[in-house]
UniProtKB/TrEMBL annotation:
Mg(2+) binds at T40. Homodimer. It comes from Aeromonas molluscorum 848. Catalyzes the complex heterocyclic radical-mediated conversion of 6-carboxy-5,6,7,8-tetrahydropterin (CPH4) to 7-carboxy-7-deazaguanine (CDG), a step common to the biosynthetic pathways of all 7-deazapurine-containing compounds. It catalyses: 6-carboxy-5,6,7,8-tetrahydropterin + H(+) = 7-carboxy-7-carbaguanine + NH4(+). Signal peptide: none annotated. Substrate binds at I12, Q13, G14, R27, T92. Pathway: Purine metabolism; 7-cyano-7-deazaguanine biosynthesis. This is 7-carboxy-7-deazaguanine synthase. Belongs to the radical SAM superfamily. 7-carboxy-7-deazaguanine synthase family. One of its GO terms (biological process) is tRNA queuosine(34) biosynthetic process. Gene3D superfamilies: Aldolase class I. Its cofactor is S-adenosyl-L-methionine; Mg(2+); [4Fe-4S] cluster.
Length: 223
């Protein structure tokens, strides 16, 4: 199995349950969801004409729509090549669950890494049972996709972007009647660090005993 890799880089996980943890991010190319606030639009299209050498996706000095096909073993080997020391790996995108992640996740778990997937929940999640799955449900986006009940059922964490009360109500609708894990973490994440969104998210989290997810990497101005 070859995955279209957009970039591999090491940083601090900036949001969600693992905030503050050093992490290796593996970004896959391709996303049909169409969120208006997307800050990784360069990952949306897998253009055959933009296939680049692996060395280019390991050099993160430039944001690019270039991608390189890599196997799980090649992804793992790149961590050593780059001298990365983090033991937490985040598979992100784009929408990583466009692809069957079993081979990649099996390879990384076997090598001793803790694995997390960040997904919109609009594709079936195919990964190792030990993978931590963060679903950031994208409701009513331009791509016209729906969040799958199977994705909500697999989620260890549901991290919902909010800017206004309507977004909280959309989450309520989505979760009503959904099969969820008993220990699922539900978090609200203010969109674009807007003060009104942050105030709203804080108030709802306190009321519901949910968790607030702040995009700390945006405040720190890091990737
Ligand atoms: S799901 Fe993620 S990558 Fe895709 S459009 Fe939305 S924010 Fe962007």
């Amino acid at each position: 199995m070859l995955y279209p890799i957009n970039e591999i880089f090491q940083t601090i996980q900036g949001e969600g349950v693992f905030t503050g943890l050093p992490a290796i991010f593996v970004r896959l190319q391709g996303c049909p969801v169409g969120c208006p606030w997307c800050d990784t639009r360069h990952t949306w299209v897998v253009d055959p004409a933009r296939q680049v050498p692996i060395s280019q996706v390991l050099d993160c000095s430039n944001e690019s729509d270039g991608w390189s096909p890599m196997s799980g073993a090649q992804v793992l080997a790149s961590f050593a090549e780059l001298g990365y020391r983090a033991k937490h790996v985040v598979i992100t995108g784009g929408e990583p669950c466009l692809y069957d992640l079993n081979e990649l996740s099996e390879t990384l778990h076997q090598a001793g890494y803790q694995l997390q997937i960040e997904t919109s929940g609009t594709s079936e999640i195919l990964t190792h049972p030990a993978t931590w799955v963060t679903v950031s449900p994208k409701i009513g986006m331009a791509g016209g996709l729906t969040v799958l009940p199977s994705a909500l059922a697999r989620a260890n964490e549901i991290k919902h972007p909010v800017a206004m009360m309507r977004h909280v109500e959309e989450l309520d609708d989505l979760l009503s009647g959904a099969q969820l894990r008993e220990d699922v973490v539900i978090a609200l994440q203010p969109i674009s660090q807007k003060p009104r969104a942050t105030e709203l998210a804080m108030a709802v989290c306190i009321e519901r005993n949910w968790r607030l997810s702040i995009q700390t990497h945006k405040y720190l101005e890091i990737d």
